[in-house]
Amino acid sequence: MILLGSWATLNILSGSTGYFLSEKSPRYFHQMNAAWNLVNLGIAGFAYYQIAQNDVLSWNYSESLQQLQSLDKILLFNAGLDIGYMATGAWLWERGLRKDSNRLIGYGKSLLLQGGFLFAFDVVLYLLHSPLTNGLINISDQLEITASGLRIHF
């Protein structure tokens, strides 16, 4: 979340500055970057707060597995949304070219950039995180509870 918050802050600052220093489609590109990242900063801040409030050391095995699987699903779902953002950006850019609209061109380019970053962010985070989930599942696959006790299969 620190990476997402840093990306958002950088885009808010550069987007706000770029908006006032540019014109035509670059102006709208910067405007959308700043606006889009106000939302990203809110998401990062809320997530960071939620993480800080959780006492993960008190979670039992089942809760840990549930949280890990939930995050994996959220990351994959978000990656799908990111593809939608990029597709919308490409459509806006193309429509802006056809309609000679600086606003649509700038917004489209911004959505392509932001969607691309978020897609990379979500996929890399998933690839780093899913081995933790799979490791916890593998541990449970090696355990067998029987009437006579607990067996561990190596």
From TrEMBL:
| Pfam families linked | DUF6992
> What are the record keywords, sorted?
Membrane, Transmembrane, Transmembrane helix
List all membrane-crossing ranges: 6-22, 34-51, 74-93, 105-128
User: What InterPro entries does UniProt report for this protein, alphabetically?
Assistant: DUF6992
Q: Which domain of life is it from?
A: Bacteria
What's the protein here called? Uncharacterized protein
Q: Which organism is it from?
A: Gracilimonas mengyeensis
